[in-house]
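[audit] Reproducing an earlier prediction to check determinism. Same input, same settings, fresh worker. If the tokens differ from the archived copy the diff job will pick it up downstream; this log only records the rerun itself.
[audit] input (174 residues):
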Amino acid sequence: IPIASGTISVATVLTPAGAWGIGNGGRTTTPPPAPMPSIEATLWRSLIPVLRVRADAKVAALGPVPGAQSLQRVRLVRKGLDVTLAIDSDSGRVHSWSYADRNVDGEVGEISVAFEDFRQVDGVLVPFVENATFNGTPAPGLSRRLDSASGTVTLDPSLFSPPASGSEKLQPCS
């Protein structure tokens, strides 16, 4: 995540044993249970996880995107995940997707993300640009650009074990 004074690295881990965040220096935080369904849905809204769960999802063909006959709409629904994909019928690539959620101000609306600048990363075609809109208005906070990506990163297996009971607990906003 770029910030004014540099870059920080953060990750959210979601396993059957629970969920936690890991920041710089290995600091862990554990979210309270109430927002877990929303956290799970957010984490599943990444392109590779969505494509991997398609076998377990309810899938419905919705027809072409109006005005773009080469883009076919497909709806995927699975355990809190409900997204509509626009798939390029010529290349098979996911062009974009949309789903209902809240923006950073808490308003409910439609979030759409267009995928661009596809590059090969260890045999997988990865979009390096994701341009998001909220109800048709650009949403920079939901957009991202990758500088680099690797599928061969070695991770410490302890990252996938629940943090010690002394980890920092995130408190819900009041």
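[audit] rerun output stored. Observation attached for the diff report: Helices lie at 36-44, 47-52.
[audit] end
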